[in-house]
Structures are given as structure tokens and as C-alpha cells.
Amino acid sequence: MDDAIKTVPPEYPYAARSRHMAGSGLFRLTLNLKTGTVSKVTVLQSTGAAMLDASAVEGLRRWQWKPGKWKEIDVPITFTMRGTRGLP
Fold it and tell me: Is this model's pTM higher than 0.90 or not?
């Protein structure tokens, strides 16, 4: 995770918080080797709530990595009633 240039924590949607939704998931980021930008996010393990998965994917798409080093990176994300954890 030291090669991350920009990380954006996913939003914890109000609707999910109001329903006390929580969960942990694992997401695979496919990177553009030339730019380090995220070209694709795949859910490897769902958080258990589609709303949380969608929020994680949206936030992870805005991440950026050092160019030329990584093709794919797996990132764990945990949503708790305290906020979002599991970020590097």
C-alpha cells in the first residue's frame, strides 16, 4: 500500500447507517500500468450489502497508484457503525 498515491475512503451511505448495515469485503483493483489509475474494480468478497459494495467500488475507482508497478491489487474494506475501516 506504500505505492498508493491517492486513496479515497468510500462514503458510508446514510441509508446503510440508518439500517445499521455493516460488513467487510475484498475488492480487486485492476490498474492501468501507464497511469496508475484504476480501470476496473471487482468484488471478490461482498460486504453482504449491495449498497455498501457499490459505495466501496465507487470510492476505490478514484484511487491512484505509482505507474508501472502494479497490474492488480486486492484491497479489504470494512464498514462499521463507527465509519469505514480497513483502508491502508
Answer: no
State how far the Cα of 20 lies from the Cα of 31, in Å rounded to an integer. 33
What class does CATH assign to 4-85? alpha beta
What are the boundaries of each domain within the chain?
Answer: 4-85
* Closest C-alpha among 72, 70, 63, 65 to residue 7: 63
pLDDT tens for 26-81 read: 999 999 999 999 999 999 999 999 999 999 999 999 999 999 999 999 999 999 88
Q: Look up residue 71 and give its DSSP letter.
A: S
Three cell numbers written together for 40: 476496473
CA angle 55, 47, 85 (to 5 degrees): 70
